[in-house]
Amino acid sequence: MSFSIIIPLYNEEENVKILNNQLLSAIDKINQIKKSDFEIIYVDDGSRDATFDNLKKLSNNKVKTIIIRHKKNLSQSAAILTGINSSEKDNFIFLDGDLQNDPDDLLNFIKEFEKGYDMVVGWRKNRKDNFLTRTLPSILANSLVRLFTKSNLHDHGCAIKILKKDLIFDDITWGDFHRLFAARIMDGGYKVSEIIVNHREREFGNSKYGLERIFKVLIDLVFLKLFKSKKSSSLYFFGLFGLISFGLALLSFIIMCYLRFFNGTSFISTPLPMVSVFFALSGVIFFFISLLTQLVLEQNKTADKSLKNNNTEIIKFNIK
To answer: What angle is formed at CA 139 by the lines to CA 192 and CA 225, rounded to 5 degrees?
Structure first.
């Protein structure tokens, strides 16, 4: 059994050395697996600070280490996928680069994984984040995911995961797949386990996520249930307009009902019925434009791949 530990990084210059030392220490504690069966893959997702320079200083690692640099910032999912494509091991471990994940949890993950699960994910039961801006939106998003998918997990947003390599296929890795990865896997009938992890406060750097991630989760859920096909950034561009249109349609409908039942205003005496219908139809149109755009992109796969390679130039350093 061998593992590629994939760690995406974006503007984490102060965390690189600390994380690497903690990771090497954690690997030393995993006695049932040889060091040669591990490789560490750091993916710098277009950082604008000294993250890449600090990564290049990790030349004394006794575990095989691959350092990759994106030409520009793409996304956390894109960085993970780059690491996946560079992997030479049989299984994957995903870990965040912000030091909030504890590398010492890896031993428990591997023990659970060896029980025969296809994937093991973390549960930040005692989360060390701002409640209003991070924890509460996460609670709401996880509730929605459990409602609309087959997943019963508590925490779909926890970055630390371990999984089999053969779970990576195109129907899974569309859009920002790292957020709902476990839910997509469980919808496919695979065995997924969840264990409590030691979540730590962020000491250095700033969080790269805001409330906008809630909208992306909603869009992912809609397309996961309706289409379950490969997606690209066009999904989020048109999908966001679709969500806004549906929201305006709902708001117009609520106002219309309020005026009718509380003020006695007739439906036909205001333009609100037409406004509601207009925004509802607009939402449907935007979602289908997103789908059609993706189908066109798939038909031009060769040209699109060439363009993508030009935008994701990487530099690799293999350190043994």
So the answer is: 60
In angstroms, the CA 8 to CA 80 distance is: 6
Structure tokens at 299: 């038909």
Q: What is the CA angle 227-188-94, rounded to 5?
A: 100
Contact 273, 259 (CB under 8 A): no
- Each residue's pLDDT tens digit, 227-244: 554 445 556 667 777 888
Q: HSE (CB half, 13 Å, CA atoms) of 264?
A: 0
Per-residue model confidence (pLDDT) at position 116:
92
- 49-58 long-range contacts, CB within 8 A, separation 24+: 49/11, 49/13, 50/13, 51/9, 51/10, 51/11, 51/12, 51/13, 51/16, 53/13, 54/13, 54/16, 54/17, 55/9, 55/16, 56/317, 57/17, 58/16, 58/17, 58/20, 58/319
Question: What is the model's pTM?
Answer: 0.70
* Burial degree of 192 (CB within 10 A; 0-12, 13-18, 19+): buried
Give pLDDT tens digits for 74-96: 888 888 888 998 899 999 999 98
| Cβ partners under 8 Å of residue 56, min gap 6 | 67, 317
CA dihedral 288, 294, 295, 300 (to 10 degrees): 150
- How many CB atoms are located within 10 Å of the residue 224 CB? 20
Residue 42: which pLDDT band, with cuts at 50, 70 and 90? very high
